[in-house]
């Protein structure tokens, strides 16, 4: 008869030996852990993405308010200030200030200011606009678009390049009185 050793009464039974892993983790535990890790990563990504969606984005440059690099008292009637960051020209006439979007309303070329001619002259198909943006020659069907602006008490000028207006003809009420 074989000699069978019995554990002393009251002693805890030895743990069942794990199957499939030398680290003591069963296949089931491993699958469960990776399942929870996957679900956690999924919801973590969703929460991060969703949170980012509602986080205010600080816009700079075109599409946001872009200041004119000169103050009002530095801009005389007849001046045209190019503001590349905002893609506009700040012009001053007897009617006031205008921020003209530099995109040609014909087919979208950038329209440069010709200081000798005192006109905006599109190099693509020859549209010509005056200092208020009114089209005066070429195929452009209407004046250049213009942007909203605010003039501070200290003479700073802030143009909102996200607020662009189209028009069928120039009217002095479109200019900001100063
Ligand atoms: S894009 Fe300016 S005239 Fe055609």
Structure description:
The chain is α+β, with helices and mostly antiparallel strands and 178 residues long. It folds into two domains: 38 residues; 110 residues, Rieske [2Fe-2S] iron-sulphur domain (Rieske Iron-sulfur Protein). It has one helix and ten strands; from the N terminus they run αββββββββββ. The strands form two sheets. The protein has a six-stranded antiparallel sheet, with no helix packed on it. A four-stranded antiparallel sheet has the order 5-6-7-8, with no helix packed on it. The chain is elongated. It starts with 26 loop residues before the first helix and ends in a 13-residue tail after the last strand. The mean pLDDT is 86. The structure holds FE2/S2 (inorganic) cluster (FES). The site of FE2/S2 (inorganic) cluster has 13 residues, from loops. FE2/S2 (inorganic) cluster binds next to loops.
